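ok so i was messing around last nite and threw this chain in just to see what happens. nothing serious, just curious
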Amino acid sequence: MTDITERAGGLTDLPARFPQLHAPQYWAWGRYDAQFSTALPPDDLVTNIHLVGFAAGRIVLCRDDRDHWFLPGGTRESGESVESCLVRELQEEAGARLLGEPVWLGAHRCVTDLAEPYRPWQPHPEKAWLWGWADVAVDSTPTNPDDGEQVVEVRAVEPAEAQRLLVRGHEVWWAELIGLAVELRTRAATG
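result:
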């Protein structure tokens, strides 16, 4: 995995253009201090993988039984590769499959003060959430395993609608993550 600025022709102005995405954050649900960077983390720190999936140019979102919208992805299992996790999570949550290689946008490096890791095999107290984009096909239903989110709807929406549905309270960085994915996908198509 390489830094996005290397792959996208030296996009060094991303923190200025996407300030909320790059701002230090605190994720209360896991007591994580999180910081986004386009510098990709070492594989052994990646515990979660999420995708901005494009289906015919629209962004695939999932809605769970709590009426919470999210991008498909999730927690990496013990011994699972990044790619295998992404394939599994796309099927479980969106009934989707990759149509090409994912393009990694960056990662949130996270540090928690919790005494134990979320799962015993995960690195602790530091870990990383990897974000990417790829073209996908939604051609089945989510498998909804018992230990995962219970998805009640999968919808492909225009980017502006994805941004609106994902922004919850102060988490405006979701909109910027979508904006970054759209921009880089457009650059890849025209470049």
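not much to say yet. The chain is about 25% helix and 35% strand.
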